[in-house]
TrEMBL record:
InterPro entries found in the cross-reference section: UPF0489 (IPR024131)
Domain of life: Eukaryota
Organismal lineage: Eukaryota, Metazoa, Ecdysozoa, Arthropoda, Hexapoda
Descriptive protein name: Uncharacterized protein
Sequence similarity: Belongs to the UPF0489 family.
Length: 378
């Protein structure tokens, strides 16, 4: 049953001030519900805060998407995916402060406070950022501010919670997080609380791709990229050009493999011998191979890979009862709560996702009067 047409609803006896909770499977599917709240004027159109609990930042930008796409929400919904749904909404002005709360096994962005500009790059017409964080530079998203228009300021707060899972003597500093936000987080300010269930336990699904050929680790050497530790725009622009050349070249080589089966006139790229060797290795173990997915897996490497930590139920319970419960009890009431299951693509272990979801809902019900809508296939 598709509950988009027949939402299941879990209701509290009192309907006054019900807090809407929308649960989806793929994370970018929360965006229409956020836009719906803005359309009904429950959530302001501009300047909101997004508090995002996830093992992944989800703060990339759809490749090749014109920045003006954000002004057509239906076109935008068709363009975004799980890793890139937040920043287009920030460029549109809907979010001015992003708070990524991450578990201790996520290292894509270091803990800290970051302020940067987001805008439309004049040359490409695409959304770009002035941040020199490796997460953005390695995805070719950096641009100097003087080469952009329609510029807005974004504040990004990154904080790790649940460190006690790996370091038992450590305690979560939730009050410290709120102290950092207080100048942008008055009691009256609207915010969206967004939860990916893979915050509590996550896999890197690409590790299992053509595993007998040791594909994922082999891709590391082809796609590895060290971002320069610099604030010099010329150095960062050169890094973006180098990374783009690397990724574009590898994409064309895998396309050649798919179309030519490693026969015919071979490419002249210096990376070809390594690609050819890896392609032969994969083909020695597997018959039907999706070379486009091989490239996608490679693109998850820069100077790190995707996080993986399949958490025991005992530790998941600790994360829920300590970290999540304390966070919810400390926060003011959000305007909207969105939840992503992320289980069909194996980021959140499917064997645990229903149980995690049930436990999360229990915690929310202790603080808020909620109405839950499940927008995924049973």
């Amino acid at each position: 049953m598709n509950s988009k047409n027949n939402d299941k609803q879990i209701t509290h006896p009192s309907k006054k001030n019900e807090l809407q909770v929308h649960i989806v499977e793929d994370h970018h599917e929360v965006l229409p519900f956020i836009y719906r709240m803005m359309g009904s004027k429950i959530l302001p159109l501009n300047g909101n805060i997004l508090i995002h609990l996830d093992s992944h930042p989800d703060m990339l930008i759809p490749k090749g998407m014109d920045a003006d796409t954000v002004w057509n929400k239906y076109e935008l919904f068709n363009k975004v995916s799980i890793e890139n749904w937040i920043m287009p909404a920030a460029y549109a002005g809907h979010f001015s402060t992003l708070v990524w709360i991450k578990p201790p096994w996520a290292f894509q962005i270091a803990d800290g406070s970051y302020i940067f500009s987001i805008g439309k790059e004049c040359s490409s017409g695409e959304i770009r950022l002035t941040s020199n964080l490796p997460y953005f530079v390695s995805e070719c998203l950096y641009s100097p501010v003087d080469k952009m228009e329609n510029i807005k300021e974004i504040r990004l707060e990154v904080v790790t919670l649940g460190t006690f899972i790996k370091e038992p003597e450590r305690e979560d500093d939730i009050n410290g997080l709120l102290e950092r936000l207080k100048d942008r987080f008055p009691d009256c300010m609207s915010y969206v609380l967004d939860i990916d269930l893979d915050f509590f336990s996550t896999r890197n699904p690409f590790k299992a791709l053509y595993k007998n050929a040791d594909l994922y680790e082999s891709l590391k050497h082809l796609y590895w990229f060290d971002t320069p530790k610099s604030e010099d725009s010329l150095i960062l622009e050169e890094a973006v050009r180098n990374r783009k050349e690397q990724v574009d070249d590898l994409e064309s080589l895998w396309t050649y493999v798919a179309e030519n089966k490693c026969g015919g006139t071979e490419p002249s790229s210096r990376r070809w011998p390594a690609v050819k060797e890896l392609a032969h290795k994969v083909k020695s173990f597997y018959k039907d191979i999706d070379w486009e997915i091989v490239h996608d897996a490679g693109c998850t490497w820069d100077n790190s890979d995707l996080p993986e930590h399949v958490t025991s139920r005992e530790d998941i319970k600790k994360l829920i009862e300590k970290t999540f419960h304390n966070l919810i009890q400390t926060l003011n009431k959000p305007t909207l709560i969105t939840i992503s299951r992320s289980s069909e693509d194996d980021y959140c272990p499917p064997e645990d996702v229903d149980w995690i979801q049930e436990e999360i809902i229990k915690v929310l019900k202790k603080k808020f009067i909620i109405k839950v809508h499940e927008h995924y296939d049973e």
